[in-house]
Design brief:
The chain is of the alpha/beta class. It folds into two domains: about 325 residues, Metallo-beta-lactamase, Chain A (4-Layer Sandwich); about 100 residues, no CATH class. It contains 13 helices and 14 strands. The protein has an eight-stranded mixed sheet. The relative contact order is 0.15.
């Protein structure tokens, strides 16, 4: 930025957390800044739902973050509230380490603001529409539904044969329940005056003050006023959709309870019918819980970071509807050239829109990729299946990215390596290169 010291290099460390996200972005300066430090650090998320291997702990990752930041974190970005992104902020041992880094700014989406300025997010005066307060109420209703599903599934006896079939549903439903300890800690670290609740086009100023010489553009999430379509997972925009879904969940669970109650007598001839009924009911619950998952993903923070001649794109788990508003704005063209892309939602099918990926040119054979793509995922997490085109990571997306970028993934890391590291000169034509972990 004009008149400010500019960083000379950027270093990116993507940590091995299994199925989750955790990435540290470091800007290095040639000369000490006002606080006599020559670095600025931004931590994106710190969570997991599935460890990469037995013996792995999030505390080991937290210790590395403390080491790599030299004990000081400038910005913490919690892209959204899903456990695979924030659980590390709630566990006592890891939260203590993060708190000790004393972040100067905690960035979260506008949907997390405690005293939300509802009037700024409503449709224009005189037009009917959905308010910010109603949106937050929907999220709370979704959480209660997820709690009911989790309670039922956990109530199945240990030897229940169908439990294995429900493991994916349990994992997904559990992720929709607010991690209270993590959310409380994020709120605590945001006080006093250290919280920034961002939306499209808003929230970049404090980031630019803390990270000199670096530009930030908030690409998402849009507000309801800007883009009501972020509610599209409530079909047809029905205001009472989640209340109706609550009744459907209740009816479905009641049916499943009757068919698996202890001592329930089921004639042998009827067992296949009961099994099909359970499968159908489980599918009903899964569809509702997936809709919850998509709904929360649409609140993810999307940041475009510009430093020197490099552009870095971080999208959390943003779904297509979240990206949708940016597509209608001039800022969309800023995404046509990206040097480093953090792949959204662990490589799921709906978080890297085709309209975004195909905007990036394919690399000719034999030519070095100009872009690096980083993906944090775990292959056997139970999130989706290839037979219904929901596997994570999604193969067609992986193939499309490999045509355009050098793609690196945590699932390829050998045990016990805890992170991948990349570095780029911000004022040369060079690309982000993998370097030996330091």
């Amino acid at each position: 930025m004009p008149g400010q010291p500019e960083p000379t290099t950027a270093r990116v460390r993507m940590y091995q957390v299994g199925f989750g996200d955790c990435l540290l972005l470091t800007f290095e300066y040639a000369h000490p800044l006002a606080d006599n430090r020559k670095e600025r650090h931004i931590l994106f998320d710190f969570g997991s739902t599935h460890s990469p291997w037995e013996g792995h702990t999030m505390k080991k990752v937290a210790d590395k973050i403390a080491l790599h930041t030299h004990g000081k974190l400038d910005v913490l970005v919690a892209t959204h509230r899903h456990r695979d992104h924030i659980s590390g902020f709630g566990t006592q041992a890891t939260a203590k380490i993060v708190a000790g880094l004393k972040p100067d700014l905690v960035v979260r989406p506008w949907t997390e603001e405690p005293d939300i300025p509802e009037e700024a997010l409503e449709p224009p005066p005189g037009q009917p529409g959905f308010t910010a307060a109603q949106f937050q109420a929907e999220i709370e209703t979704m959480e209660k539904l997820a709690q009911r599903v989790v309670a039922w599934l956990r109530g199945l006896s240990a030897g229940e044969e169908t439990r294995r079939a429900y493991e994916g549903l349990l994992a997904l439903a559990f992720d929709q329940i607010k991690n209270k300890a993590a959310v409380d800690n994020l709120a605590l670290w945001s006080k006093p005056e250290k919280g920034e609740y961002v939306s499209f086009g808003k929230g970049n100023k404090r980031l630019e003050q803390l990270i000199p010489g670096v530009g930030f553009k908030v690409i998402g999430p849009p507000t309801l006023k800007q883009h009501p379509a972020i509610r599209s997972y409530a079909p047809d925009g029905e205001e009472e959709y989640w209340i109706a879904a609550s009744q459907e969940v209740g009816d479905t669970l009641a049916t499943m309870k009757r068919s698996s109650a202890p001592g329930a007598s089921i004639p042998v001839a009827a067992m296949p019918i009961v099994a099909r009924l359970r499968d159908r009911n489980a599918t009903t619950l899964l569809n509702i819980v997936r809709r919850m998952d998509d709904y929360l993903n649409n609140t993810s923070v999307i940041l475009l970071i510009e430093a020197g001649n490099k552009r870095l794109l971080f999208g959390g788990d943003a779904q297509v509807e979240n990206w949708g508003y940016a597509k209608t704005q001039p800022a969309w063209q800023d995404l046509a050239k990206i040097d480093l892309y953090k792949v959204g939602h662990h490589g799921s099918r709906n978080a890297s829109p085709e309209s975004l990926v195909t905007m990036w040119p394919e690399t000719p054979p034999g030519v070095e990729h100009a872009m690096v793509a980083l993906m944090s995922t775990k292959l056997d997490s139970g999130h989706g299946h290839e037979e219904n085109d929901t596997e994570v990571p999604r193969k067609p997306l992986v193939e499309a990215l490999k045509k355009r970028a050098a793609l690196y993934s945590t699932h390829e890391l050998p045990k016990p390596q805890l992170w991948l590291e990349f570095k780029a000169d911000l004022h040369s034509a060079g690309v982000f290169k993998p370097v030996a972990p330091t």
